[in-house]
């Protein structure tokens, strides 16, 4: 069937339009007629713009003249029939594939965030050379005073006692050489922020005077130290650094293409995700402590009772999803469950 | 063949002469549902190929938006090839990963990198604009960007740095100077310093923005024809002052409303109680904290909304002003008719659309934005009389384009 369509011709590298018409032959022969350019051309010798949704497709002849149809659907239909089919264009309009793509996108996004990024981060963190980790640790240690920590006001006897408790605890751990790349160290500081204990890269654990005063007995402090040793054992600090790097790279790659709205949403998502990773680390550290407490004392009461003390001290009710630490109630319940299940 | 002959007979007149209208509006023909198919398949293939397909995805997305943008019966074309994008993208990703690692490990290196990036920004911006312009074609004629590197360094680095210096160091110098003269003058000095701060902010914003916009508009070419604009700092100052007044007004109004609500619900009582009990009564403390959180959340969303309004206002004013001052080779006049109400409605509905659909609505949001932007943009003058010829510049690789994208260097004026 022979069709004729109207349109215009654009001369090579020139914005001037010339009215034109083109006869679309059944055998893929194009017959163009216009003021600057006429003749017969086989479709294969021309360049057709890619099929993409309903966008009009133009034909560029080998001397650079371009034919633009006034009724683009007409030309598009004819081109679909006579040119090589575009697989990708078909896929983009295939309802079944679109549904599958939606489901796959949700599943892949979810599992990447929940499993992929943490697993990859752990893998990378374990590949970080010890010297680098030590450097990171030394640097954060050098900032400790600026963060509101000052020299401990405890007597040197009491400090020596706690150091002994710490080294006993570390030595009691089975296969400790495999657990820690460097021997962990305990540092005691006084803090404006109150009772606190945390681990840093390079194996330093910081315990505040206020935490030591809060604890009823040294077995509670041992439990806290075990929790922090759990963070070091799992290389949580390096892992967090890698995780936040991955998230920020991913955010940069995604947002690079989108609008300001996406920027805002992305930063909220990144924050929420890093908080959930942090909560997961706390669970891992709790489990580490629970495992050893249970091995040594057949219960996890010391850690539970310390969490109870902390809970009575901290009244602030931050919603779970907005917190770096999981809900203390949940953590205590899990610790109790741990000793019951064993 | 008789059909052909008759067609040839009329070909002496140009097509545009049939419609003598001197105003031509941009039209966007894209459809949300159609673009969603393209978008989601892009996502799927990008995931399946571990990111490789993203280069093809970028080209298809750009092509979709360009080919659906019509002006005077012709569509725009995006010419970049996936391979060009892929090479640029691989280099950008490698740089970004290296950047992230160095940043995390050593803060001193991180600062050095930030300085390097700052000095590279104008260069990247020029290359980025040039690449994007050369990849854009309309009626067989490509755009181009010929702004100089020197101009870019002046407008994008030297002037912004000077502006920061004036805004920050100026007030400090005034306050310190008044204290140096006499201790009693310190009060006057602080007031003058604050006034200077606001005045300097308005002026510097206008000075920098006008400079950047003028540099960019005058750097663009359609074929060999140049775009021209004379942009006035005073107009940008007016916009900044109005935006600031809008912000201040909203803050004062919201504070008054917050107080009114506070009294209504007796929040003040619990705060008074809190102060009296010296933070000991745990009930009052709980109440106060709950209220504090409520206030924090409410004020966060209020600030988010307010910043959206202000950003929209500034965008509407600057785009309209800039377009309405822009001419192509003295033949065509650009027009932008954005209105705050309609633009804000677009931004807010898009925002909600994206949130409600957990991000899947981005495809519709982008199509809606493109439709709106096209509908408020016009060209005055007879398009058929513009005898533009393509330049013969080669298109360079997409490296700078991708690096600029990855490091979020966005110096958009449109």
UniProtKB/TrEMBL annotation, chain A:
Keyword Metal-binding in annotation: yes
Cofactor requirements of the protein: Zn(2+)
Domain (Peptidase M48): residue spans on this chain: 169-338
Keywords attached to this entry: Hydrolase, Membrane, Metal-binding, Metalloprotease, Protease, Transmembrane, Transmembrane helix, Zinc
Any matching Pfam family: Peptidase_M48
Protein name: M48 family metallopeptidase
Membrane-crossing segments per the record: 95-117
Cofactor note: Binds 1 zinc ion per subunit.
Superkingdom of source: Bacteria
InterPro entries registered for this protein in UniProt: Mito/Outer_Membr_Metalloprot, Peptidase_M48
Keyword Repressor listed: no
Membership in a protein family: Belongs to the peptidase M48 family.
CDD domains membership: M48C_Oma1_like
TrEMBL record, chain B:
Record has Transmembrane helix as a keyword: yes
Keyword tags: Membrane, Transmembrane, Transmembrane helix
Keyword Lyase: no
Membrane-spanning parts: 36-57, 78-102, 108-126, 147-174, 186-208, 244-272, 292-314, 343-365
Name of the protein: DUF898 domain-containing protein
